[in-house]
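Listing 4. Sequential folding, example run.
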Amino acid sequence: MSRKNYRYLLFNKPYGVLCQFTDHGNAEKPRPTLKDYINVPDVYSVGRLDRDSEGLLFLTNNGPLKHRLSHRQFAHPRTYLVQVERIPNDTALNRLRQGVTIKDYQTRPAKVKRLDSPPSIPPRDPPIRYRKTVPTTWLEMTLTEGRNRQVRRMTAAVGYPTLRLIRIAIGVQNKEKILNLTLDGLNPGQWRELDPDELIILRDWGIL
């Protein structure tokens, strides 16, 4: 496939949407998929978001790029807003920063900060289940790997279950440089192509 036929899309995945174009589950009750929002053929998501997670997906038909951004050896950063139950203490936050043991593997160190106020984001549909007597806290977490349900497992491992999870940025890096692709300008359910400036940067770096 020639370069001119490659497509590069950013999509803000809503809650409850499968991160695929076909639902192989219950045919009588089909669930929303990417096909309900994106009418571009033959593109596939780089990495995944669970059905109950929201936020940024990068889709392309460029196979080598998909491999590069998906494989943990390249350590491309991914940033999430994470609403957790209760208020994590410094010990828990430091454990997340250092990496935690989940079953048979140790997560890589993560960048983690506790937000002083809730982020300005659209409400979720349906909303999370609040418990009146239990406070919640928002964290910003940046990981350089994307194992299955990793953020949820990490916060649960330190005693603070995740209530809402939104990926807000995917970093594409070349040596010491990082281009952060973000949700800016995308409401849930909306998508866009990479803009000319983003394409020029990635081509100059030899990534496209």
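-- end of first protein; second protein begins --
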Amino acid sequence: MRDVRIFFEKKDMAKYISHLDLMRCFSRAVKRAGIDIWYTEGFNPHPFMTFSLPLSLGTESFCESVDIRTNDEMPFDEIKERFQSTLPDGIRVTKVAAPVHKANEICFSEFEILFYTEKSELVLSSLKEKIGADEINVEKKGKQGRKKVFRQVNIKENIQSFDFSENENGVLLKVVLTAGVKDNINPSLLIDAITADVKDEIKGIDIKKTKMMLEDMKEFE
């Protein structure tokens, strides 16, 4: 048996495929591609498949990954070619390789968030003021026993770094947020918090995940 990591992009209309449907999509793709994948044992065997981190619906990504376990030594290039021919539009395999890091080593994700606006100066000034504040309080979903509850959380410490720039479409924010099994921050929480005063001036928002990184800021491989 051999562990294999498949890196892929999820863009365009594919960004609206939920995580559950994405898992089903890859399970079907494995079968159609004729890859000899290892199945779990027990009463309900299923293909061994582990995604690095769930991606929020509506977010594009250039750096998603899924781990599979194969029963043979099929070359990585052939796995890539076979997979790509079975996946829907918007999902493109970029690399197939042996895993270097464990998924639980992921600590940060880098995002590019484009705010479409005709009033870039006003929006930029407001966003800078909000993200530069001592506290950025948001409502975050959590659990209290079996009950789902919402609580106020300050996510200022979850922002590792940020940088603003202007372009022909509006304002671009590059931001690194905490990620992983322990402290995964959805960028939409940050967006809701910092755009409260200029919602009417923003005509649309695009979110792209560009990197996943370890604690030392090295790229996840």
